[in-house]
Amino acid sequence: MIWRGRIFTASADEGAGQRFVSCHELADGRLAWNREIAGPIERHHVQNSSASGSVAVDESGIYWTWAVREGLRVEAFAHDGTRRWRCELGPYAGEHGFGATPAVCGDLLIVPDDQDGQSAVVALETATGRERWRLRRDSGKTCYATPLVIDVDGRVQVVLASAAHGLTGIDPRDGRVIWERRCLPKRAVSSPVRAGPLVVATCGDGGGDNTLVALRMPAGGPDVAQGRVEPPLAFALDRSVAPYVPTPLHLDGRLYLWGDRGVVTCAEAATGRVIWRGRVGGTFSASPIAVGGTIRNISADGEVVVIAAGDAFEVLGRTPLGAECRATPAVAGGRMVFRTVDRLLALDATP
To answer: Residue 224: which domain range?
Structure first.
């Protein structure tokens, strides 16, 4: 996460049994501060880590969530690295380990906790860590989707994706469910995105049996106010184009679906009609981002791939970084920043 010229990251030295939240200067990579977070290191999926989730940032500070069997924990720091508060939200059960990222919504931090055990979504006050509300949820396979905060007809909603509930829109003021459609039959690893009047999400498994769904968000009205709405399905796409881990990218009326196994699909966002497909090779956990008329991503082997945005598939460039990477890059101040397994790297972001 980049905020006002600083890079905020979470990391773990699993051999030493340590986790860290760190701050680096965007201009030169200099370490501004580094805070160790005490806690056990537990077994997880080989492609996961003990610090997979990203930090969330607002004017007041930095927030990070992590979990082991004994509990899901939220850490809060000021921008200068001073600890503000810590909160424990209850036991956590997940066969692949933890990896979700919270979302800031006004004065609240929305913490997703869709797990194998008792699931919930919890709203904490960013100033104090006090629990404002907790919505208990059905449990299914552990999910890793970041909540999506959107404005629909002047009303702020938080959209959640999970195997147990599909796609859910909640009112962040009190946690009340205002719409829901159970449309994600498998684990949600990628995060929901907005595509105009639609919300798009994917689910799947390691075998490639993935699904993408697009729901038409309900407009405001008495039914929505009373929480009785099941949004209509706009379209669905099958395993041939739907990614599992990388989050879809919406840009200029198109969806860019960067597949885990190196096949990229461009589809019309309104209808799901496939415009083109192209193979870039490699395997991917990171999600694509848009930079100046291009789409960029980094493979698990650390190769940055740049393709053209638009109605034709074209690979514009490749840059090997020489380090394993499963984190989505970030762009700010003319730099494209990567968090690999053992370092931070920055490239010129000029198209």
So the answer is: 143-245
Give the integer Cα–Cα distance in Å for 216 and 173: 23
Among candidate residues 214, 245, 276, the one where a domain is terminated: 245
**CB–CB of 144/99 below 8 Å?**
yes
Query: Taking the CA of residue 281 as centre, how many other CA atoms within 13 Å lie in the half-sphere pointing to its CB?
Result: 8
Q: Which residues pair with 276 in a beta bridge?
A: 266
Q: How confident is the model at residue 252 (pLDDT cuts 50, 70, 90)?
A: very high
Count of domains for the chain: 3
The pLDDT tens digits for 72-114 are 899 999 999 999 999 999 888 877 777 789 999 999 999 999 8
Residue 179 sits in a domain whose CATH number is 2.40.10.480
* pTM as predicted: 0.93
Q: Are 239 and 256 members of one domain?
A: no
Closest of 76, 77, 74, 63 to residue 33, by C-alpha: 77
pLDDT digits (tens, 9 = 90+) for 113-123: 988 889 999 99
Q: What is the pLDDT of residue 13?
A: 78
